[in-house]
Write a structure and sequence with these properties.
- Helix content is 36%, strand content 11%.
- The protein has a five-stranded parallel beta sheet with strand order 3-2-1-4-5, with helices on both faces.
- It is globular and about 55 Å long.
- With 226 residues, the chain is of the alpha/beta class.
């Protein structure tokens, strides 16, 4: 089996990406990052999802993006927006996060001899983050295959973003068909300790609207509804 490193946040999208990678026959090695985010609920969700979906192993890397700050997800003095989407890129954007995460996945993939990295990035129903766009992912893949010994020696690494052009409803349908239990996942930017979602942040609004559009019951525990 071809090996793949799958970036797994514990949210709806990354769980679906893992399920699709498993379905396509990859031996999946799940990688999560404890980067100083507001809560650990999503990391606990990632552990559950990795086990249920059959990842060969699940590792969590610890690093400190709060050292730099600059995001409501890493600096609790910055308030998570709860009034719906505004103009421009929201303050929940974490500077260079996907570049950092993909670089970590790339290093592990090279050690494992993996031919693929999966990421649940989406450029349709999302908050406008620049590092979720197809052109960014294509550029990272090109860089990866210039920067690694594996690629230079004839073993290139593919960056797979199977959800990048899907709506949230389409992602939910794909995940459901692939066996994802979305009740195990946490997408909220400010979930409480038991994983209950705030219900008012962008991530909650996009998630809830996706289930409505998909016509599938939403298993999320929301503390508020708008």
């Amino acid at each position: 089996m071809n090996k793949a490193v799958v970036l797994l946040s514990g949210g709806l999208d990354s769980a679906t990406a893992l399920a699709l990678a498993v379905r396509h026959g990859f031996d999946c090695h799940a990688l999560s990052v404890s980067y100083g985010q507001r809560h650990r609920a999503e990391l606990e969700a990632a552990t559950r999802v990795a086990a249920v979906l059959g990842a060969s192993q699940h590792r969590v890397i610890v690093l400190s993006l709060p050292f730099f700050g600059g995001s409501a997800l890493t600096d609790k003095s910055i308030q998570v927006p709860t009034d719906g989407a505004g103009i421009g890129i929201p303050n929940t954007y974490v500077p260079a996060r996907n570049t950092i995460f993909l670089s970590l996945a790339l290093a592990w993939a090279e050690v494992l001899g993996a031919s693929a990295i999966f990421i649940g990035a989406n450029a349709v129903d999302y908050s406008g983050y620049p590092d979720c766009r197809p052109e960014y992912l294509q550029a990272f893949e090109a860089m990866a295959n210039l920067a690694t010994r594996a690629a230079v020696e004839g073993h290139p690494i593919r960056i797979h973003a199977p959800l990048v052009s899907m709506t949230k409803a389409q992602i939910i349908h794909a995940g459901t068909e692939a066996g994802v239990d979305f009740g195990l996942t946490v997408s909220c930017y400010q979930a409480d300790d038991d994983g209950s979602a705030c219900g008012v942040c962008d991530a909650c609004r996009i998630r809830r609207a996706g289930f409505v559009a998909a016509g599938i019951d939403d298993p999320t525990r929301y503390l508020q509804r708008v």
